[in-house]
# Entry
Amino acid sequence: MIVKPAAESIVFNASTTVPGDKSISHRSIFFSSLSENTVRIENFLFSEDCLRTIEAFINLGIEINCSDSSVTVTGKGLQGLSKPSGNIYAGNSGTTARLMLGLLSAQNFKAVISGDESLSKRPMKRVTEPLGEMGADFKGNFLPIEVKGSRLRPIDYRLVVASAQVKSAILIAGMYADGVTAVHQDYKTRDHTERMLKSFGAPVSIAESVVSISKTDYLNVVDFAVPGDASSAAFLVALCLLSSKAKITVRNVGINPTRLGFINVLKRMGAKIDLNIVLKESDSEIGEPSADITVTSSNLQGTTVRKEEIPLLIDELPILFLLFALAEGRSYVENVSELKVKETDRVNSVLSNLRRMGADVETTGEDVKITGVDRLNAGELLSFSDHRTAMVNIIAAVFAKGNSYIDDIECINISYPGFVAELKSILSDQVEFR
Ligand code: S3P
# Structure
């Protein structure tokens, strides 16, 4: 795709929404499939990743019907899954694969989980190791992995890597183990699994640094709506902040605090951002608050992102790197090692494009230092088939001097279908995308 900025200063006043939250959409299919009820999920994210989760559960014998913006799942209970025919294919989706490894650990059949080239290189030992301690049996530490379900024992486990996917896989397996399974975390990670399971009546206890679950007899899942994805909204927030004179309201975005690390960082940088609550946590069927987020163009100063903040903004670091590259002064990010094991090594994929555009970036060990420049130059940018890298490239290109070429935008459908159409509508003739 070619991005041709027609105006040097970008001006707009917009009000919009973003598609449903990816993490919550995945979990909505997992827990509805295991519930005793027929559940209607509104504002489901029909992206490539979430479609892999739907297909996986259809393969496990669950009836799932999709309409324009909702999904209806006929749950079969915690013991209702049946042996799949062929592999369960997770595509590019780490959440599908890792949560599924947890669930299949407890079934009374064998199954194989496979994925695309990127997912087959991503570490799975972080889940197979604790699940193995619970009694599950795996062949392989990288996909494809064969899982032989077993009767599970509970564990008391301290997360080695700060990962919500690992924590979720253990909690899902913990629903089937006799006794109390506890996951301790040194750093907070996103907590959708425990919020949703608690709302659906599972015996979950949530404390500051430990989450535990007891053997679960049934899940009572009621109809609910998925809030907008804060990680997708982050790209529109960045677009507005970098514009000369702009204002945007992104309506109905999930504001779970474990997802808002990027807003805290941006506020430290001087960003003008207001949140107007539309749904309180206590009024949400799934314990997930949401808000309208209003942003106004701002002059940004560099900041330091501490390592304990990383899990709370891991998916937003790519777009934050761009904002650091155009902020005044220096920004430091401590310990980006987890960013290297995402859909791509995002330290390399995102920063190599920004460097090519003239950004001042240094990496030392696991840390990143970025010194702001006034403007980036256009360039030939590579997406590496990574949705978030592709979206950073596009936003960077909107503010660059000259016309940029981006090799692959198809991969954006993994998390944010309609992203380019949204930009076209917000920016109208100020930028040409073709
Ligand atoms: C996710 C957790 C995060 C995030 C991923 C989705 C989830 O991964 O990067 O996009 O749905 O639980 P980790 O928890 O493994 O870092």
Observations:
- Residues 2-20+227-433 form a domain with the UDP-n-acetylglucosamine1-carboxyvinyl-transferase; Chain fold (CATH 3.65.10.10).
- Residues 164 and 412 are 22 Å apart (CA to CA).
